[in-house]
Amino acid sequence: MLPIDIDFSRIKDVLTYDPQAPMIFSSGIFLWLFSAFIIVYVFLQRKYTARLLFVTLFSYYFYYKSSGTYFFLLAIVTITDFLLAQWMERATVRWKRKGLIVLSLAINLGLLAYFKYTNFLGEVFASLMGGTFSALDIFLPVGISFFTFQSLSYTIDVYRKDIKPLTNLLDYAFYVSFFPPLVAGPIVRARDFIPQMRKPLFVSQEMFGRAVFLLMSGLFKKVIISDYISVNFVERIFDNPTLYSGVENLMGVYGYALQIYCDFSGYSDMAIGIALLLGFQFRQNFDSPYKSASITEFWRRWHISLSTWLRDYLYISLGGNRKGKFRQYLNLIITMFLGGLWHGASWNFILWGMFHGVALALHKLWMTIFRTNKGYESHGWRRMFGVILTFHLVCFCWIFFRNVDFQSSINMLNQIFTAFNPQLFPQLVEGYWQVFALMLLGFLLHFAPDKWENGVCNGIIKLPFIGKVLLMLGVIYLVLQMKSTEIQPFIYFQF
């Protein structure tokens, strides 16, 4: 029998929160832990309450590994909104129901405002008053924007009487903390998720095959494309735009457009795929957004869970399109202004949101004046022109989203329009050929016909079970090899 030496200090390091390496789906430690998790999960498939409790505890641990001790915020949001929804259901007087939903909004948005916007608002107030503001040392918990919006969708739906409140605190804790969408979305609606919770665990061959496909595509987009082109090209351009020619800056903007898409959609794909492995079905969150022929269509394809949340709970609450054209345009701008602020406490996010709000309003005005079809209904050369125009409009807005200050964005645009120097392009491609090869591959895959993606997905679905398992293990092995520095062995066999 081989003697075994266990490094308990290493075990402690793996199991405790590391602020320098928070746990995400593409990290080696998550893939190891999830492998153990799924074994216990399958063992508890017929024990509904035990399975919900186990997943909830694992979700809290997952959030602890992502944000440290701030997992208590999940408990605060869970308990308060669960009780407020219960009281709302029992309230017979309208003003009491209104008071309770206002309290829910105050708690959720108050937490969000404190952790995310305190320093930003302090600086704005100080500049208006002519004083100075010393930034507070406030840690921003990962995913707070997502789980507060998710919980708010529940209390607002209960207030509107679209759903009945849950009567079991464990069920609601499971919904709010469910780990696949917890830290980076998608934002899952209670009306879609709650009916699936206490159903028998069932993962069909189609669900399993689609999960494998989503995990493969998500890991490829996030780890191979997004992370690589970000570190090796995009960050260098955006950090010092004046050091590079206009053509280099333009390629940097194109690279960032692909990077942010692959980052957001890749993580969403992994979340949806992991949920499928656990028997839960989420709606699609990204639908090839750069294929859009108008800015309106773009927001039907980009971060769908967020755009529909803003539409249903903010835009419609402001009046939507029910109070005349001017109010509709104003409501669009306000909604996107707040949507930009949701992304981060900075003027660049606000400006980005305002650009999109104005663009949406102008597109609505264009369709009203010329009585044209919606962009996504166009065909042929008109659609091609619309796609090119929309893509470059979105890229223009990404410049202000990515740069932390307005001057850097102006510098980048100035380089593009006054110092383009196209003759440097061959030299640029030669120096960054790996980056450009990945960018070309990424855009080709993005703009490929949907039937190609469906064909690959259906091909994986048709594989025998063992084929799917081996394919998924192969992808996990590849990622572990790329992430090998993140996790070192803590069990040593002495020969």
If you had to describe this structure to a student in words, what would you say it looks like?
By secondary structure, the protein is mostly helical. It has 20 helices and two strands. The longest helix has 36 residues. The N and C termini lie close together (10 Å).
SSE order in H/E notation? Answer: EHHHHHHHHHHHHHHHHHHHHE
Total number of β-strand segments? 2
Query: Unreliable runs, pLDDT <50, ≥5 residues?
Result: 485-495
Large-scale geometry: globular
Q: Any idea what the radius of gyration is? A: 24 Å
Q: What percentage of amino acids are in beta strands?
A: under 5%
As laid out across the biggest beta sheet, the strand order is: 1-2
How is the secondary structure organized here?
Blueprint (H helix, E strand, L loop, with lengths): L3 E3 L1 H8 L12 H16 L4 H20 L4 H19 L3 H36 L14 H16 L9 H9 L12 H4 L11 H35 L6 H32 L17 H7 L2 H12 L9 H19 L3 H24 L9 H23 L3 H13 L6 H7 L1 H15 L2 H13 L2 H18 L8 E3 L2
Antiparallel strand pairs: 1-2
Helix pairs in contact: 3-7, 4-5, 4-6, 4-7, 5-6, 9-10, 9-18, 9-19, 9-20, 10-15, 10-16, 12-13, 13-14, 14-15
Based on the model shown, name its key terms.
mainly alpha; two-stranded antiparallel ribbon; 2 strands; 495 residues; disordered C terminus
Short description:
By secondary structure, the protein is mainly α.
